[in-house]
Design goal:
The complex is a heterodimer of chains A (294) and B (493). Chain A is an alpha/beta fold and 294 residues long. Chain A is elongated and about 80 Å long. Chain B is an alpha/beta fold and 493 residues long. In chain B, strands 3-4-5-6 form a four-stranded mixed sheet. A two-stranded antiparallel ribbon of chain B has the order 1-2. The chains are: A alpha/beta (294), B alpha/beta (493).
């Protein structure tokens, strides 16, 4: 918490967050890709977030007999225990599959890990020796058709202090990437982080900015350009009037971008509640993986 | 975000089950609220309004989703004298003051004090409560028409027998409906709820208690409010712990304390008596599938709707049906396991439990019972720890020096044992007392050591005291030593 967000342990691992959703294979593939690029170990994480058990048959008898409380506690504990054991076994099988797949895809030292608790909490507890989290856009509980993001994702994005690779449904080799840029401190940090990291080294790069061609924006873009060039990239800049979500989505399609880099949510919750957030909107509409930087 | 998330989880993660459980609880709350009003000596509507207000308000302000709070027996028992001597308006004022005190207690994190209330005291508390609820039913069984007895028995048979056939409908409700229909159909003349006082015929309205707002009034209500505060919070924390365990989820006890306070203030302004969390109802709620805040809200709202719109019918309920329900409540509250446990639990624990029960039942005051229990367990603990003291005697190589090595805890309870371990009659040149492995906890300990030294000096013995600095470190009044850097030295030497 107290650490600045951008100090990321260089020897940290890539952590793939898995569940039994349609995104799992894609998450493993993306994580394996990142592990190779970063020369970092891969850890596959499965979090067991137990839903409190409920007796199978409803009891509306409304009466309490001798030591009903004690009996109820035993009954609920037993139900929870069964559920937990099952989930643990399923998780282990899932992790084993993932490890195999990651190993085939060339990931470095793929390993599995399980933890109890809500996902966001587990990740913040583990993030000290992680340099990149990889997570699917939706979890097993989310309905793909609604277009909504997984309930866990936003919570995770807001609580972790590490870069977060949000994967699309299917992995495709990433051949060019784009940075969503608006000249703000957050997006400047994104540029700096891209420059520092080996993750995207050598890939063709685009800087996408939405808005009018003001002096400030042009200047900021020039700065970003120089930074990237110094780091060995050959960036192309694009400025398009319009709102960020639309411009970014359009340009991604037109330029056949394979990965989008953008800043994660700001801290203004109130604002987010009222006007929504570009991050959420772009995440929702994009069909390519998004690398969120804090 | 986290606020929205927790609000969504607390309220809407379990809607269907919460609503159903809330209905079951509301049905179980009605007879209890009426019965507890009668225990306190007020009209049934006072308890019913209180149950509505508290259940609804606590669903928003409480720290333990899924817990049910309303007018309770524990609180009703404490109001009897105030109501008898001064009337309802003073009870409403006392309820307001209780709320204020509970909010203050919440800010001062009184929940932390629960650590001093041992398990045996808690068991004693619930057992005493069960006994008192049962005893409160006796007046309804004395000097009543003979028809009451078979009706109570029939009620109990239905309540306990029906769940064996079906668990889809609340059996206490069926018992009440059946007995009411029987009484009306056969024209059985037995006392009914309607005979006992007013039932709500309208929604509760806001009003200030009609009392002189003077210091004199304050002195009348303050003692009652203080005990209400203590007992209310105690039962609420206790119930919260039970729900925590049942659902394997955490609760915020400090928020719960403040929430109980707000709920009681609202209750007082709307003509209700003070209440708190209910062990039995909360267990029923969890058993019926209730987990979220919605269950408590539904229970409160449904209770009021039913009572207001069915008040004519509620008045017809025979007291016998109510007594049957309350006997069930007292049986359900009592910890039967604790009777079995008496055989193999430590004697001191059993003594604490029984002491709590005896004092409570004798005084009808759960606060006094709990205080007794806490004191008894503290004494028992002091006695046990006082046995952790060994004084070893040995002769040093020169043959003229007696060495006493003191290991263990020296404090008020072990000071005399400490003193008795020294042999003052021995004729010897020198005495060396090594206290570096002892803990001197208080002034009694230091006083005892002083006396040992004086006595030896009077016999002309030379005294050599070793390790006093280490030993008296424990004297320093510091709480929470375990997280201080030198704690290891202090506890481990």
């Amino acid at each position: 918490m107290s650490k600045p967000a951008y100090i990321i342990p260089a020897d940290g691992k890539v952590m793939a967050c898995l569940d039994a959703s349609a995104y799992t294979e894609s998450v493993v593939d993306h994580a394996a890709w990142a592990s190779r690029r970063l020369a970092a170990d891969l850890v596959c994480l499965h979090v067991l977030d137990r839903k409190p058990a409920r007796p199978a048959r409803a009891d509306f008898s409304g009466n309490i007999g001798m030591d009903t409380g004690v009996e109820l506690l035993e009954e609920l504990t037993e139900l929870d225990a069964q559920q937990a054991r099952l989930a643990m076994r399923r998780g282990r099988a899932l992790l084993e599959q993932a490890r195999q797949r990651a190993s085939d895809a060339g990931a470095i030292n793929p390993d599995g890990q399980q933890r109890h608790g809500p996902l966001a909490q587990a990740l913040t507890e583990l993030e000290d020796n992680v340099r990149l989290f990889v997570i699917g856009k939706r979890g097993e509980a989310a309905d793909f058709n609604t277009g909504h993001l997984g309930a866990n994702l936003e919570r995770v994005v807001r609580s972790v202090h590490r870069p977060l690779l949000v994967t699309s449904r299917k992995f495709q080799a990433i051949e060019r990437f784009a940075i969503a840029f608006d000249g703000s401190a957050t997006t400047r940090k994104c540029v700096e982080m891209v420059c520092m990291s080996p993750l995207l080294k050598g890939l063709p790069c685009h800087l996408i900015a939405a808005g009018d061609e003001t002096a400030a924006l042009t200047e900021a873009l020039a700065w970003a350009r120089t930074e990237l060039e110094q780091a060995g990239f050959e960036p192309e800049t694009i400025i398009q009037p319009g709102n960020a979500e639309q411009v970014i989505t359009e340009q991604i399609g037109e330029l056949d971008i394979g990965l989008l880099v953008m800043g994660a949510y700001g801290h203004s919750r109130i604002r987010h509640l009222i006007v929504g957030s570009t991050t959420t909107a772009v995440l929702r509409s994009s069909t390519i993986p998004v690398l969120l930087l804090r | 975000m986290s606020f929205l998330y927790s609000a969504r989880r607390d309220w809407f993660s379990n809607v269907r089950a919460d609503v159903l459980a809330g209905l079951v609880v509301a049905l179980a709350l009605i007879p209890e609220a009426i019965a507890f009003s009668l225990i306190a000596g007020v009209d049934p509507k006072v308890g019913l309004y209180a149950s509505f207000c508290i259940a609804v308000v606590i669903s928003f302000t409480g720290g333990r989703p899924g817990m049910i709070s309303a007018a309770t027996g524990a609180m009703a028992l404490l109001m009897v004298t105030l109501v008898r001597d001064h009337g309802l308006e003073y009870l409403l004022a006392a309820t307001l003051l209780t709320g204020v005190l509970q909010i203050i207690a919440g800010y001062f994190k009184v929940a932390e004090l629960m650590r001093f209330v041992s398990r045996s005291v808690v068991t004693g508390f619930v057992n005493a409560l069960a006994i008192l609820i049962f005893l409160a039913q006796i007046p309804e069984l004395i000097n009543v028409p003979a028809a009451v007895y078979p009706m109570v028995v029939a009620g109990l048979v239905i309540i306990y027998g029906l769940p064996r056939l079906t668990r889809a409908i609340p059996s206490p409700l069926i018992a009440i409906v059946f007995l009411t229909l029987a009484a009306v159909a056969f024209g059985i003349q037995v006392p009914t709820v309607g005979d006992k006082g007013d039932l709500p015929d309208a929604l509760p309205t806001f009003l200030l208690p009609d009392i002189p707002w003077t210091l004199e009034t304050l002195w009348i209500i303050l003692p009652v409010s203080l005990t209400l505060t203590v007992v209310g919070l105690l039962e609420s924390f206790l119930t919260a712990q039970i729900v925590d365990d049942l659902t394997d989820t955490p609760s915020d006890k400090h928020r719960e304390a403040k929430g109980q306070g707000v709920a009681n203030i609202v209750s007082g302004f709307f003509g209700g008596m003070a209440g708190c969390a209910m062990i039995g109802q909360s267990v029923i709620n969890v058993k019926s599938g209730g987990r979220g805040r919605l269950s408590s809200l539904v229970a409160g709202v449904f209770l009021l709707l039913m009572v207001v719109f069915l008040s004519d019918y509620v008045g017809m309920i025979p007291m016998a049906a109510l007594v049957a329900v309350m006997i069930m409540v007292s049986i359900g509250t009592f910890s039967w396991r604790s009777i079995v446990d008496l055989k193999h639990h430590p004697k001191t624990s059993s003594l604490v439990m029984i002491g709590t029960v005896v004092v409570t039942v004798a005084t009808h005051d759960l606060a006094k019972g709990v205080l007794t229990g806490v004191l008894l367990s503290a004494l028992g603990f002091a006695r046990k720890v006082s046995q952790v003291l060994v004084v070893e005697k040995s002769l040093e190589d020169d043959g003229e020096t007696r060495r006493y090595t003191v290991t263990g805890q020296v404090f008020f309870a072990s000071a005399s044992d400490f003193l008795a371990a020294f042999d003052f009659r021995e004729v010897i040149e020198r005495v060396r007392i090594d206290v570096s492995s002892a803990h001197f906890w208080d002034l009694s300990a230091v006083g005892a050591l002083d006396r040992v030294i004086l006595k030896f000096r009077r016999e002309g013995v030379e005294i050599d005291l070793v390790g006093m600095n280490e030993a008296s470190r424990t004297m320093v009044d510091r709480l929470g030593v375990h997280d201080k850097p030198d704690a290891e030295k202090l506890l481990g030497h």
